[in-house]
Protein backbone atom coordinates (compact mmCIF):
# COMPACT_ATOMS: atom_id res chain seq x y z
CA UNK A 1 0.00 0.00 0.00
CA UNK A 2 1.30 3.43 -0.89
CA UNK A 3 0.70 6.59 1.09
CA UNK A 4 0.22 9.98 -0.53
CA UNK A 5 -0.03 13.44 0.99
CA UNK A 6 -1.32 16.11 -1.39
CA UNK A 7 -0.34 13.94 -4.35
CA UNK A 8 3.20 13.29 -3.10
CA UNK A 9 4.36 9.83 -2.02
CA UNK A 10 5.16 9.50 1.69
CA UNK A 11 6.92 6.29 2.66
CA UNK A 12 8.50 7.21 5.98
CA UNK A 13 7.59 9.25 9.03
CA UNK A 14 10.10 11.86 7.88
CA UNK A 15 8.29 12.11 4.54
CA UNK A 16 4.98 12.77 6.29
CA UNK A 17 6.54 15.43 8.52
CA UNK A 18 8.27 17.13 5.60
CA UNK A 19 5.06 17.19 3.57
CA UNK A 20 3.08 18.46 6.57
CA UNK A 21 5.56 21.27 7.24
CA UNK A 22 6.34 22.04 3.63
CA UNK A 23 10.06 22.10 4.42
CA UNK A 24 12.68 19.47 5.24
CA UNK A 25 12.95 18.64 8.94
CA UNK A 26 16.73 19.07 8.77
CA UNK A 27 16.23 22.76 8.01
CA UNK A 28 14.81 23.28 11.51
CA UNK A 29 16.68 20.64 13.49
CA UNK A 30 20.02 20.60 11.73
CA UNK A 31 22.15 17.58 10.97
CA UNK A 32 24.76 15.85 13.05
CA UNK A 33 28.27 17.12 12.45
CA UNK A 34 27.35 20.35 10.67
CA UNK A 35 29.92 23.12 10.82
CA UNK A 36 29.25 26.56 12.28
CA UNK A 37 29.16 27.96 8.73
CA UNK A 38 26.59 25.36 7.65
CA UNK A 39 24.53 26.03 10.77
CA UNK A 40 24.56 29.78 10.12
CA UNK A 41 23.48 29.24 6.50
CA UNK A 42 20.70 26.86 7.59
CA UNK A 43 19.37 29.29 10.19
CA UNK A 44 19.54 32.14 7.67
CA UNK A 45 17.47 30.09 5.21
CA UNK A 46 14.98 29.25 7.98
CA UNK A 47 14.61 32.97 8.81
CA UNK A 48 13.96 33.73 5.14
CA UNK A 49 11.28 31.05 5.00
CA UNK A 50 9.54 32.39 8.11
CA UNK A 51 9.31 35.85 6.52
CA UNK A 52 7.45 34.38 3.53
CA UNK A 53 3.69 34.94 4.03
CA UNK A 54 3.01 31.36 2.88
CA UNK A 55 4.86 30.06 5.97
CA UNK A 56 3.64 32.73 8.37
CA UNK A 57 1.57 30.20 10.30
CA UNK A 58 4.39 27.64 10.52
CA UNK A 59 5.13 28.18 14.25
CA UNK A 60 1.43 27.69 15.06
CA UNK A 61 1.29 24.64 12.79
CA UNK A 62 4.28 23.13 14.59
CA UNK A 63 2.65 23.68 17.97
CA UNK A 64 -0.56 22.06 16.71
CA UNK A 65 1.43 19.12 15.36
CA UNK A 66 3.31 18.68 18.64
CA UNK A 67 0.06 18.88 20.63
CA UNK A 68 -1.51 16.24 18.38
CA UNK A 69 1.47 13.91 18.91
CA UNK A 70 1.23 14.35 22.69
CA UNK A 71 -2.53 13.74 22.56
CA UNK A 72 -2.30 10.69 20.27
CA UNK A 73 0.71 9.10 22.01
CA UNK A 74 0.66 9.96 25.73
CA UNK A 75 2.76 6.87 26.47
CA UNK A 76 5.73 8.59 24.80
CA UNK A 77 5.64 11.20 27.53
CA UNK A 78 4.98 8.97 30.53
CA UNK A 79 7.54 10.64 32.75
CA UNK A 80 8.15 9.24 36.20
CA UNK A 81 10.10 11.28 38.75
CA UNK A 82 13.24 9.54 39.92
CA UNK A 83 13.75 8.95 43.63
CA UNK A 84 16.88 10.58 44.96
CA UNK A 85 19.01 8.28 47.05
CA UNK A 86 19.56 9.33 50.64
CA UNK A 87 22.86 11.09 51.16
CA UNK A 88 25.37 9.18 53.16
CA UNK A 89 27.31 11.09 55.70
CA UNK A 90 30.79 9.93 56.43
CA UNK A 91 31.71 10.13 60.05
CA UNK A 92 35.19 11.43 60.65
CA UNK A 93 36.85 10.49 63.85
CA UNK A 94 39.90 12.04 65.22
CA UNK A 95 41.21 15.37 66.31
CA UNK A 96 41.56 18.32 64.00
CA UNK A 97 45.09 19.61 63.77
Give the topology, please.
Elements: E1 4-5, E2 8-9, H1 13-21, H2 25-29, H3 36-51, H4 58-72
Antiparallel strand pairs: 1-2
Account of the protein in words:
This protein is mainly α. It is built from 4 helices and 2 strands; from the N terminus they run ββαααα. The protein has helices spanning 13-21, 25-29, 36-51, 58-72, and strands at 4-5, 8-9. Strands 1-2 form a two-stranded antiparallel ribbon. β1 and β2 form a beta hairpin. The chain is elongated, with a radius of gyration of 24 Å. The model has no long low-confidence stretch (mean pLDDT 78).
Strand content: under 5%
Mean pLDDT: 78
Return the string of H and E elements.
Answer: EEHHHH
Oligomer: single chain
Helix count, DSSP H or I runs of 4 or more residues: 4
Query: What fraction, in percent, of the residue positions are helical?
Result: 40-55%
Task: Report the major sheet.
Answer: 2 strands, antiparallel
Radius of gyration: 24 Å
> Spans of 5+ residues with little confidence (pLDDT < 50)?
none
**Termini separation (Å)?**
81 Å
Helix-strand category: mainly alpha
Widest beta sheet: strand line-up: 1-2
What coarse outline follows from CA principal-axis ratios? Answer: elongated
The beta-strand count equals: 2
